[in-house]
Structures are given as structure tokens and as C-alpha cells.
Design a protein that fits this description.
Blueprint (H helix, E strand, L loop, with lengths): L1 H28 L4 H26 L13 H13 L6 H12 L6
Bound molecules: flavin-adenine dinucleotide (FAD).
Flavin-adenine dinucleotide (FAD) binds next to helix 4.
Organism: Tepidiforma flava
Pfam families: Acyl-CoA_dh_1
Keywords: Flavoprotein, Oxidoreductase
Amino acid sequence: MRHRMAEHAIGVQLLRNMAYYIASQQEKTGIAPTREAQMAKLFGAELQQRIAATAVQIFGMEGQAARPGAKALRYQYLLLRSVANTIEGGTSEIQRTVIATRGLGLPRE
Ligand SMILES: Cc1cc2nc3c(=O)[nH]c(=O)nc-3n(C[C@H](O)[C@H](O)[C@H](O)COP(=O)(O)OP(=O)(O)OC[C@H]3O[C@@H](n4cnc5c(N)ncnc54)[C@H](O)[C@@H]3O)c2cc1C
């Protein structure tokens, strides 16, 4: 669990740095770096799922509770909501395909 928490902390820091990079590039050039923005969207959405799953696991049964007032309620909500994050705004599969083809110039399947 300690290792997983460390990985999540690294992921959050990495995502923050990606966001700063995207914002600074946009400010400098006036154009959003779309490849990096897509990478951040994909990475952030999947990171949120991993963090939410860890939080729910830490809280055990309480982590799955949906009743109002439950301590871990927000983690249960976060886990359910994080599924939508990998669909809305383009699914993770589509993001990966676009990054690979338009971003890295790899051929389509
Ligand atoms: C909570 C939520 C909020 C939303 N909010 C908005 C909104 O505000 N405005 C708006 O316009 N839309 C919104 N959407 C719609 C969202 O953008 C689409 O659901 C999303 O782009 C996926 O499209 P789809 O549902 O048609 O899935 P599909 O394109 O039918 O995909 C279904 C599955 O097939 C996979 N798939 C499809 N094509 C490929 C491929 N070429 N290669 C590999 N895998 C593939 C997908 O990854 C997915 O797993 C929202 C969706 C959700 C879940």
C-alpha cells in the first residue's frame, strides 16, 4: 500500500507538471499543445481511477458505502465518477490512438 501511495504521489506531481507545461506553451505560442494535452487527459483520467480504487480499498466496507454521512462517501463517488472520466471528452482507447498516430506519427492499424 505504501508503494502504491508513493506511485500515486508521483503521478499527481507528474500531472501537475504536465498541466504547467501545457499552460506555459499555450501562453508562449498562443496554441495549445494538443498532443501533450491529450496525454494529460488520458493520464489524469486513469490516475484518478487508480487513486479512487486505492482509497476505496483502504476504507474497506466503509469505502463502498453510499449512505449520507459515511466517512468515505466521497471516495465511493470518486470511484464511480472516475469511470466517466475515461469516456467523456474521448475514450482512453481513442486518446491512445490519436497520440500514437497524430502525435507520434505511427501508422493506423
Ligand atoms: C459522463 C459523461 C459526460 C459526457 N458529457 C458530454 C458533453 O458534455 N458533451 C458532449 O458532446 N458529449 C459528452 N459525452 C459523450 C462522450 O464524449 C462520448 O460518450 C465519448 O466520446 C465516447 O463516444 P461514444 O459514447 O459514442 O462511444 P463509442 O465511440 O461508441 O465507443 C464505444 C467503445 O468502443 C471503443 N472504440 C470506439 N472506436 C474505437 C476505435 N477506433 N479504436 C478502439 N476503440 C474504439 C471506445 O473506446 C469505447 O470503449 C459525455 C459522456 C459521458 C459518459
